[in-house]
């Protein structure tokens, strides 16, 4: 009976003093972002970002079971014979084995090398993710590094927060530095077409590494906050790896071809090049990379109405989001490198700005192109534009709230500030960072505690007397 009473007491007490927490949004992978390390390190976040902090910590936990990641985990060896080489297959290419003998008995390895591969635009070959998935592993790695770094930074005053930075270090070490598991610093076998003539990577493979901006942001944050888990030795090793990869980006034939692309491929190229040059300390090179992009590709990418050129029919929303995503990333990098650059207000040859580009998407009807599931993918972009340009008419926040009423609980709400939305934690609460979390626990009302304490004392006294 005593046990039953105590259990009931604790349940009622917790119901009164601990608020019911909202459900954490599903894990999201923002295609590419660069966070200003100064903003994160300064930690001057609005009180309304408490839910976003919760989400970041939870997402860091959600990714634990998937890692660590390594190029050595794939079951197929690249044509080089070295599994340390990153490898991916072009997603829209399918085998035509009509000219190969024993077509019904071909093992997969023979299909990949002997059958002619042909392109089916928009039709994804499922084996590009089920057989070889270095691209998916790298995306997950980048997210895990970002969210664990942020979870550590947000909780660094708590001794237990080191679990997050230790994970970050382990993830980076496994993918880039450990001799047994590291990736060679090149993309020679990225986005292979396969078949007799497709056993080397293609220029589009350079896009595979675009999430590296998240890793660069994370390392800069750890360095600025003097994280002891990310040692000087590890940093120097990563700088060495990055320098080798930068050299590949600037000299490899397929990389140079990608740097000349006038569409979003060129945008992605200069974004990752600038981020890596920033990391290795080549500030002039990083600034030159972003300015090269804004003075060349950017000039012809967006017309006066905000519409992109060379847009594929039938994929209006999807292409618009992809094209614009790295506009923001490149502007974020240049703004960090040179706050006086006025990167966000640079104009194309047609007078369009980044804001013009995003505003155009808001005028589109997703259902008209059978893309009703796409708008949520660029909520982070809408938030970024609102934070930079302002939102005096609430156009952007209205769009966000119409699609996601709880957008303030999304991780991006932390770094896209100032942005309206969200609510401060309960006024009678104190922030608990126990176990690295951001649980908001109200300061218990003294009268409530007194009532339950007296009830418990009376019950215990009665049990003692009965004994």
From TrEMBL:
It comes from the Eukaryota. Residues 70-362 form the Alginate lyase domain. Residues 1-22 form the signal peptide. One of its GO terms (cellular component) is periplasmic space. One of its GO terms (molecular function) is lyase activity. Keywords: Lyase, Signal. InterPro entries: Alginate_lyase_dom (IPR008397), Chondroitin_lyas (IPR008929). This is Alginate lyase domain-containing protein. It comes from Clathrus columnatus.
